[in-house]
Amino acid sequence: MERGISRDFLKAHILYKLARHRRWGAKHTELINVRTALPQEYQSEAESLARELADAGFLTWLKKTGQIHVSLNTRRKKEIDAIIDKYSQKEITYGH
């Protein structure tokens, strides 16, 4: 990671973007769209960060139309909101 941005910060940014676009439960988006949630220099990390979030239970991972789709896990909403709040103090909306 360059410029001192942690993986946790990038994961929080992905959660923030999905929440802002209301991608909860049955409303999902293609994994490729998660890349655009990150600054260009970190987009290559998007899939591994999303997998870590899915392994931790924050994202649901779906195979639809030959593509991987992700959505936020509604059962973990309070935890997701807490993560977003924690990192929002560190200007989570940089560059957008």
Topology summary:
Elements lengths: L6 H14 L8 E2 H5 L10 H10 L3 E6 L2 E6 L4 H12 L8
Antiparallel strand pairs: 1-3, 2-3
Features:
single chain, 96 residues, alpha+beta, Arc Repressor Mutant, subunit A, 3-stranded antiparallel beta sheet, 4 helices, 15% strand, globular, disordered C terminus
Description:
The protein has 96 residues and is α+β, with helices and mostly antiparallel strands. The protein has one domain: Arc Repressor Mutant, subunit A (Orthogonal Bundle), CATH 1.10.10. The chain is 43% helix and 15% strand. The chain contains 4 helices and 3 strands. A 3-stranded antiparallel beta sheet has the order 1-3-2. A hairpin with a 2-residue loop joins strand 2 and strand 3. Helix 1 packs across helix 3 (46-55) and helix 1 (7-20) packs across helix 4. The radius of gyration is 12 Å and the shape is globular.
